Amino acid sequence: MLELDIQEVYQPGSVLDFPRRPPWSYEMSKEQLMSQEERSFQEYLGKIHGAFTSEKLSYFEHNLETWRQLWRVLEMSDIVLLITDVRHPVVNFPPALYEYVTGELGLALVLVLNKVDLAPPALVVAWKHYFHQHFPQLHIVLFTSFPRDPRIPQDRSGVLKKSRRRGRGWGRALGPEQLLRACEAITSGKVDLSSWQEKIARDVAGATWGNGSGEEEEEDDGPAVLVEQQTDSTMEPAGPTQERYKDGVVTIGCVGFPNVGKSSLINGLVGRKVVSVSRTPGHTRYFQTYFLTPSVKLCDCPGLIFPSLLPKQLQVLAGIYPIAQIQEPYTAVGYLASRIPVQVLLHLRHPEAEHPSAEHPWCAWDICEAWAEKRGYKTARAARNDVYRAANSLLRLALDGRLSLCFHPPGYAQQKGTWESHPETMELVALQGRVGPAGDEEEEEEEEELSSSCEEEGEEDRDADEEGEGDEDTPTSAPRSSLASRNPYTMLGEDEC
Ligand SMILES: Nc1nc2c(ncn2[C@@H]2O[C@H](COP(=O)(O)OP(=O)(O)OP(=O)(O)O)[C@@H](O)[C@H]2O)c(=O)[nH]1
User: Fold this and answer.
1) Could you name the domain of life of the organism this protein comes from (predicted)?
2) Is residue 345 part of a domain?
3) Which residue's CA is minimally distant from atom 14 of ligand 1?
4) Is the shortest distance between the CB of 476 and ligand 1 below 6 Å?
């Protein structure tokens, strides 16, 4: 139930590819080039839609402009960073991109298993080995922008608490050092990375805890970072960079699905907030470049949704599709509750149980109803339990990692003991413990109970509010205005109960 194999999601070698820039020459006019790209993109879409029914096919990026940005980022890069959420890394790992980057482009691909604070260390290590085994050319880096000490139990119920930390915290990221080591191995002395090493040492020395979510970070006054905003005009074609490490600078392209934590990772590398972070998928729209140091340039690509056979409920829970845009959230709640005991974790009382301890079969609707009752969510007019709001709230808890849904590589359950005692697991625990809050008395930390933190309704509904305020947070490919007609979740079936 919790196992996930890349075969199921992408069928490597099938038409579930990503669009490529068709061949071009300098003799072509810009118009010719654009229309050629448009034609080739339509063919690409036609092949995919011809091979799979819309029920099987996941929602994916249909906006050519977004893919053009990927092309441009890949053309500029010396090293490509593919950022994935470690709770479901195969969801965020299109094998076609691996083949293209390592094969056709001949570039190094670094897989970042991100948000390692949200998964048990043994599982993180098992995923790392899974990818090494299946994709031997990868360099793999473990990362979290918001480290937690895994030695400190979060809650006896197994529900993660949300920690709020004050001050500047981006320098606390776990993983910059490992990434530097990977880049040193890749560049093998061709770029002077000593300035990066010095920067990491400075950041670690100057770091204090920041807000755990990164969303309300205070303005800080760290050293200025040179940022270049890329606009449409820079989307003009250019061949892949012929010259590696031009002017002694290594360009690292950061690519990934929406919501995998790219912006937070860049902030974590820079050591201060340079990119805004949002829980709403599809936040980053145009790519930007940041000089981490004079010899290290980061290039941030907008979130990309590659075509796959991912169940639609999992797309919601993986943060690929904005929760605020789902019309029917109950099936996704059902998907979640059939994998983790939501009602137990949240201490819910069955709506029909006369006695709190009475056994009763649960369906998704019951769980939403019970959560609405517990939270006091009422509809405005009839003051009945607001089940829709409760369903949204539950999905957000899962997305934030407070209700922990982590998928496993095949065979994990049978080998769990081996992974738990694996030396790399011990290393990861020790590393997280070192940067984690334990023993750091100067931090001001405020742990909140899950139940009370859910009260921050400003926060619960923030995504919806943000989307109402303009197009800042609206996914590039699913404009809000045409939501009803284009929302792929109208396809979802009714709740099973
Ligand atoms: N627990 C945890 N949460 C994280 C981490 N990194 C990011 N997040 C959260 O994940 C959500 C998405 O983070 P972003 O950094 O905006 O992700 P993104 O990939 O830039 O998203 P797009 O703009 O949609 O492409 C936010 O709610 C972050 O607070 C991490 O390392 N650990």
Assistant:
1) Eukaryota
2) no
3) 261
4) no
